[in-house]
Amino acid sequence: MIEKISVKQFAMLAFVNLIGTSIIFIPTVAANYGEQNAWIIVLVTTFVGIFVVLMYTLLFLKNKGTNIYSLIEKLLGKKLGLLIILIFMSYVFLNISANLWTVTQFISVQILVGTPSTVVIFMNISTAVIAVRSGIEVLTRTAEVFFPFIVLSLILLCVMVLPEVRIENVLPILKSNKLNLFLGGISILSFTFLELVILLGIMDDVDEKEKLNKYFLIGSIPASLMITFITLLCILVLGVEPTSDYTYPIYVLGQKINIASFIQRIEGIGAFIWFFTNFFKICTSLYVLMKGIKHITKTKDDKIWTIPISYLIFSCAYNGYNSTFYDFDHTTYVPITIIVGFFIPLLLFIVSFIKKNSNTFNKT
Amino acid sequence: MFYLGAFSILIFYLELKRIRSTKNKKESYIFAVCMVVVAPLLTLQIGEVIDFRIVDAYIWAMHPISSPFMHLFNQ
Prior knowledge:
The complex is a heterodimer of chains A (364) and B (75). With 364 residues, chain A is mainly alpha-helical. Chain A is built from 14 helices and 2 strands. Chain A has helices at residues 7-19, 22-34, 38-62, 68-76, 78-111, 117-134, 136-160, 178-191, 212-238, 240-245, 249-255, 268-297, 303-319, 325-363; strands at 258-259, 263-264. Chain A has a two-stranded antiparallel sheet. In chain A, α5 packs across α6 and α11 packs antiparallel against α12. Chain A starts with 6 loop residues before the first helix and ends with a helix. Chain B is mainly alpha-helical and 75 residues long. Chain B has one domain (2-73). Helices cover 83% and strands 0% of the residues of chain B. Chain B contains 3 helices and no strands. In chain B, α1 packs antiparallel against α2 (25-46). Chain B starts with a helix and ends with a helix. The A-B interface holds A 90, 94, 97, 118, 122, 179, 183, 187, 297, 299-301, 304-305, 307-308, 311-312, 314-316, 318-321, 324, 327-328, 330-332, 334-336, 338-339 and B 4, 8, 11, 15, 19, 22, 24, 26-28, 30-31, 34-35, 37-39, 41-42, 45-46, 51-56, 58-59, 62, 65-66, 68-70, 72-73, 75.
């Protein structure tokens, strides 16, 4: 059975994929690099991100909506294609396990203190496996159900924390080290827009592909602007140093909510946003990974891979990042995201352009 | 470790039954081999009998690519 999703559903997936994880870590990363101008870095990254999204959709549409794995093989040949596919898949695998690890750490440290991390990982990965085995249609419909609640929670969080804003925290504007701003921009871009390269794996499941360009932007730009606003709020409410020191500033932001000493301590809103967006991100990535394995092994049923691969992801999320996560984030994850999210699509784009031009030249 | 081992055996049995019902012998063999390799590895890792780290291996493999970036970010 061929499963199809609408462009609106795809836009929602783009939104939740961009918000997931980024909303927790971007304020910290941005404050580390840009201090009081952290929000400006995220805003500039949004504009750069538009070009990244346009590159992805153009690459897909110019090649008649071919699946990313078939496209890589078609453009780069069997051997080099296989190598690039393996690099892409290893990136997707690490993305899933890193996301799972972060959410597990958060639950074990902040919410269910004392609960073994294995239980939390098991619950998360088994739900994701069930979702992926149900298919992309079921997954996107579930995202559709939760989407209004995610947006509502984001709006509520932003509005309710407004009374705690202190303008002096964000001053002076535009007085920062330019190299730091540049490096911060690269880091943020790799945690946000470049991670959307994974969505290239589900673009061939979208109906009305000609509208994909518009809806990809509709999904990703509001998400990035929302992250910019949350970063600004973190700086305005918490200040620069606490924002860069806290691992989960959005959670602390929720703790600051105090309306008439009546509505207090509703930090669960931040956790709710993160859990759901992160869950959909994990599911989408797992689905794309399964598609890749199916493509390489030429098996008819990709469901056979879900359980063994989920065991490996479990293993990585269990102890893979304990001592290396922060090191891994800045030394391995950012470079590999830049390579997979920027250089590989750019290479594919250039090769497809050259091939098309040489074909038209041969015909004339 | 015990619960995970028991769960793995149950999942292995149920999934194998499902694949065999589709009369696809090749895929049931693939699944069986994968599970026989992966499930004991994870179970022993959770029980802290063995310790294998895929992420560390990945970081090591990616070092030639990531080292120029490390220099840039450490400035």
